[in-house]
Amino acid sequence: MPVLVDANVILRYLLDDVPEQAERAQAAIRAGAYTVDEVVAEVVYVLSGVYELSRRDIAEALTQLLDEVDVDNRAVVLVALRVFAEDRIDFVDAVLVARSRVLAERIVTFDKKLNKLLGVQ
Fold it and tell me: Which of 23, 36, 46, 57 could form a disulfide linkage to 53, CB 3.0–4.6 angstroms apart?
């Protein structure tokens, strides 16, 4: 049965900076793991804010991770990672853009940059 992994497990897995925890993270992921959109958002926030990785590196690492870890709304998360890497918006806004593109959801916002990406005049 798959286990739900949190941001700390994903970070240890990606960064391999705490050997004992990295091993446990690898074992959990190999055994079958899944996560949720909110955890992905937290990982993006930590990798960009704390570890100061580039947007492209973050998107690439998490896209590869999603080959090993299931996530709710996979298509939305993958598009959001691409938008995050390509446009200068935060990840949550990238998720909104992705939901608009993938799920055809109508997004209402006062954010001019987000409206532009959403194709709203």
Answer: 57
Q: Which residue has the tokens 């897995």?
A: 13
Residues 22-38 pLDDT 10s: 999 999 999 999 999 99
Residues 6+ positions from 90 with CB-CB distance below 8 Å: 84
Amino acid at 69: V
Pinpoint the alpha helices (H) of 1-121: 7-15, 19-31, 37-49, 55-65, 74-86, 91-103, 112-118
Domain ranges of the chain: 3-118
Q: What is the pLDDT of residue 113?
A: 93
Architecture of domain 3-118: 3-Layer(aba) Sandwich (3.40)
Distances (CA, A) of 30 to 45, 68, 72: 25, 8, 18
Angle of helix 91-103 relative to helix 37-49, nearest 10 degrees, comes to 140
